[in-house]
What we know:
Blueprint (H helix, E strand, L loop, with lengths): L4 H13 L1 H23 L3 H6 L1 H27 L15 H12 L2 H10 L10 H33 L3 H24 L3
Helix pairs in contact: 1-2, 1-5, 1-7, 1-8, 2-5, 2-6, 2-7, 4-8
Amino acid sequence: MTPGLDTAVVLRSALASGSHAGIRTALGCATGLFAHAAGVALGLSAILLNSAAVFEAVRLSGAVLLVAFGLISLWSACRNHQPLSTEPGSRRRRGPYVQGLLTNLMNPKATLFFLAALPQFVASGGQPTLTALFLALIAGGFSAGGLSLVAVLAGRARRLLSSARARRIQEATMGTVLVGLGLRVATEAH
Protein backbone atom coordinates (compact mmCIF):
# COMPACT_ATOMS: atom_id res chain seq x y z
CA MET A 1 0.00 0.00 0.00
CA THR A 2 1.90 2.98 -1.31
CA PRO A 3 0.60 6.52 -1.61
CA GLY A 4 -0.85 7.10 -5.03
CA LEU A 5 -3.17 9.29 -6.97
CA ASP A 6 -5.88 9.53 -4.31
CA THR A 7 -3.38 10.39 -1.60
CA ALA A 8 -1.82 13.14 -3.73
CA VAL A 9 -5.21 14.71 -4.46
CA VAL A 10 -6.29 14.52 -0.80
CA LEU A 11 -3.00 16.05 0.34
CA ARG A 12 -3.30 18.89 -2.15
CA SER A 13 -6.87 19.60 -1.12
CA ALA A 14 -6.14 19.51 2.62
CA LEU A 15 -3.01 21.65 2.32
CA ALA A 16 -4.78 24.18 0.10
CA SER A 17 -8.14 24.41 1.88
CA GLY A 18 -7.94 22.59 5.21
CA SER A 19 -8.92 19.27 6.75
CA HIS A 20 -12.62 19.52 5.88
CA ALA A 21 -11.88 19.95 2.18
CA GLY A 22 -9.39 17.07 2.36
CA ILE A 23 -11.98 14.83 4.00
CA ARG A 24 -14.53 15.72 1.29
CA THR A 25 -11.89 14.84 -1.31
CA ALA A 26 -11.24 11.54 0.51
CA LEU A 27 -14.96 10.75 0.47
CA GLY A 28 -15.05 11.44 -3.26
CA CYS A 29 -12.09 9.08 -3.79
CA ALA A 30 -13.78 6.40 -1.66
CA THR A 31 -17.02 6.78 -3.63
CA GLY A 32 -15.07 6.29 -6.86
CA LEU A 33 -13.38 3.22 -5.39
CA PHE A 34 -16.76 1.80 -4.42
CA ALA A 35 -18.05 2.53 -7.95
CA HIS A 36 -15.11 0.61 -9.46
CA ALA A 37 -15.68 -2.35 -7.16
CA ALA A 38 -19.44 -2.27 -7.73
CA GLY A 39 -18.82 -2.18 -11.49
CA VAL A 40 -16.74 -5.32 -11.19
CA ALA A 41 -19.35 -6.97 -8.95
CA LEU A 42 -22.11 -6.20 -11.45
CA GLY A 43 -20.03 -7.20 -14.46
CA LEU A 44 -19.95 -3.69 -15.95
CA SER A 45 -16.16 -3.47 -15.87
CA ALA A 46 -15.92 -6.27 -18.42
CA ILE A 47 -16.78 -3.61 -21.02
CA LEU A 48 -13.66 -1.71 -20.02
CA LEU A 49 -11.49 -4.80 -20.40
CA ASN A 50 -13.08 -6.07 -23.60
CA SER A 51 -12.81 -2.79 -25.45
CA ALA A 52 -9.31 -1.45 -25.91
CA ALA A 53 -10.75 1.83 -27.23
CA VAL A 54 -12.91 2.39 -24.11
CA PHE A 55 -9.99 1.49 -21.82
CA GLU A 56 -7.69 3.91 -23.67
CA ALA A 57 -10.31 6.66 -23.55
CA VAL A 58 -10.70 6.26 -19.78
CA ARG A 59 -6.93 6.06 -19.28
CA LEU A 60 -6.22 9.17 -21.36
CA SER A 61 -9.13 11.09 -19.78
CA GLY A 62 -7.67 10.31 -16.38
CA ALA A 63 -4.24 11.49 -17.52
CA VAL A 64 -5.68 14.76 -18.85
CA LEU A 65 -7.60 15.29 -15.60
CA LEU A 66 -4.45 14.79 -13.51
CA VAL A 67 -2.42 17.13 -15.68
CA ALA A 68 -5.21 19.72 -15.46
CA PHE A 69 -5.32 19.48 -11.64
CA GLY A 70 -1.51 19.73 -11.60
CA LEU A 71 -1.49 22.78 -13.85
CA ILE A 72 -4.10 24.45 -11.64
CA SER A 73 -1.79 23.86 -8.66
CA LEU A 74 1.21 25.20 -10.57
CA TRP A 75 -0.78 28.27 -11.63
CA SER A 76 -1.81 28.78 -8.02
CA ALA A 77 1.86 28.56 -6.98
CA CYS A 78 2.73 31.35 -9.42
CA ARG A 79 0.06 33.72 -8.14
CA ASN A 80 0.78 36.05 -5.27
CA HIS A 81 -0.44 34.28 -2.13
CA GLN A 82 -1.35 35.87 1.12
CA PRO A 83 -0.55 33.87 4.27
CA LEU A 84 -3.31 31.45 5.21
CA SER A 85 -5.80 32.51 7.78
CA THR A 86 -6.89 30.10 10.46
CA GLU A 87 -10.46 30.41 9.19
CA PRO A 88 -11.79 27.51 7.11
CA GLY A 89 -11.65 28.10 3.36
CA SER A 90 -14.68 29.51 1.61
CA ARG A 91 -14.34 27.28 -1.46
CA ARG A 92 -17.29 25.45 -2.88
CA ARG A 93 -18.30 22.49 -0.73
CA ARG A 94 -18.82 20.03 -3.59
CA GLY A 95 -15.61 20.92 -5.43
CA PRO A 96 -13.24 18.76 -3.35
CA TYR A 97 -15.67 15.80 -3.37
CA VAL A 98 -16.07 15.98 -7.14
CA GLN A 99 -12.30 16.29 -7.62
CA GLY A 100 -11.72 13.13 -5.54
CA LEU A 101 -14.51 11.27 -7.32
CA LEU A 102 -13.31 12.18 -10.82
CA THR A 103 -9.70 11.40 -10.00
CA ASN A 104 -10.63 7.93 -8.81
CA LEU A 105 -13.18 7.17 -11.54
CA MET A 106 -10.69 8.09 -14.26
CA ASN A 107 -8.09 5.72 -12.82
CA PRO A 108 -8.37 2.44 -14.76
CA LYS A 109 -5.86 0.83 -12.39
CA ALA A 110 -8.55 0.77 -9.70
CA THR A 111 -10.83 -1.24 -11.98
CA LEU A 112 -7.99 -3.58 -12.91
CA PHE A 113 -7.18 -4.10 -9.23
CA PHE A 114 -10.75 -5.07 -8.40
CA LEU A 115 -11.02 -7.26 -11.49
CA ALA A 116 -7.97 -9.17 -10.30
CA ALA A 117 -8.66 -9.25 -6.56
CA LEU A 118 -12.42 -9.27 -5.99
CA PRO A 119 -13.32 -12.61 -7.64
CA GLN A 120 -10.92 -14.46 -5.34
CA PHE A 121 -12.97 -13.49 -2.31
CA VAL A 122 -16.41 -14.27 -3.73
CA ALA A 123 -17.72 -17.83 -3.34
CA SER A 124 -19.39 -19.31 -6.40
CA GLY A 125 -22.44 -20.43 -4.42
CA GLY A 126 -24.95 -18.19 -2.71
CA GLN A 127 -25.19 -14.57 -3.80
CA PRO A 128 -21.84 -13.58 -5.33
CA THR A 129 -23.03 -10.13 -6.45
CA LEU A 130 -24.23 -9.23 -2.97
CA THR A 131 -20.98 -10.51 -1.44
CA ALA A 132 -18.91 -8.54 -3.96
CA LEU A 133 -20.90 -5.36 -3.25
CA PHE A 134 -20.36 -5.88 0.49
CA LEU A 135 -16.61 -6.26 -0.13
CA ALA A 136 -16.73 -3.09 -2.25
CA LEU A 137 -18.35 -1.27 0.66
CA ILE A 138 -15.57 -2.47 2.98
CA ALA A 139 -12.87 -1.30 0.53
CA GLY A 140 -14.57 2.09 0.17
CA GLY A 141 -14.85 2.41 3.94
CA PHE A 142 -11.18 1.66 4.52
CA SER A 143 -10.23 4.08 1.76
CA ALA A 144 -12.40 6.83 3.26
CA GLY A 145 -10.95 6.23 6.72
CA GLY A 146 -7.30 6.14 5.66
CA LEU A 147 -7.53 9.11 3.32
CA SER A 148 -9.49 11.11 5.91
CA LEU A 149 -6.67 10.52 8.38
CA VAL A 150 -4.22 11.82 5.77
CA ALA A 151 -6.48 14.87 5.30
CA VAL A 152 -6.63 15.62 9.03
CA LEU A 153 -2.85 15.30 9.42
CA ALA A 154 -2.25 17.46 6.34
CA GLY A 155 -4.79 19.99 7.62
CA ARG A 156 -2.85 20.26 10.86
CA ALA A 157 0.43 20.61 8.97
CA ARG A 158 -1.24 23.36 6.93
CA ARG A 159 -1.33 25.58 9.98
CA LEU A 160 2.41 25.14 10.41
CA LEU A 161 3.05 25.88 6.74
CA SER A 162 0.85 28.94 6.46
CA SER A 163 3.28 31.49 5.06
CA ALA A 164 2.89 32.67 1.47
CA ARG A 165 6.25 31.12 0.52
CA ALA A 166 5.34 27.76 2.06
CA ARG A 167 2.02 27.77 0.19
CA ARG A 168 3.77 28.44 -3.13
CA ILE A 169 6.16 25.55 -2.46
CA GLN A 170 3.26 23.24 -1.51
CA GLU A 171 1.26 24.13 -4.63
CA ALA A 172 4.31 23.83 -6.90
CA THR A 173 5.28 20.46 -5.41
CA MET A 174 1.78 19.00 -5.60
CA GLY A 175 1.27 20.43 -9.08
CA THR A 176 4.50 18.84 -10.28
CA VAL A 177 3.52 15.49 -8.71
CA LEU A 178 0.05 15.56 -10.31
CA VAL A 179 1.38 16.55 -13.74
CA GLY A 180 4.03 13.82 -13.43
CA LEU A 181 1.44 11.21 -12.48
CA GLY A 182 -0.80 12.32 -15.34
CA LEU A 183 2.06 12.05 -17.84
CA ARG A 184 3.00 8.65 -16.45
CA VAL A 185 -0.57 7.39 -16.84
CA ALA A 186 -0.69 8.79 -20.39
CA THR A 187 2.60 7.18 -21.48
CA GLU A 188 2.38 3.81 -19.74
CA ALA A 189 2.05 0.87 -22.07
CA HIS A 190 -0.81 -1.52 -21.28
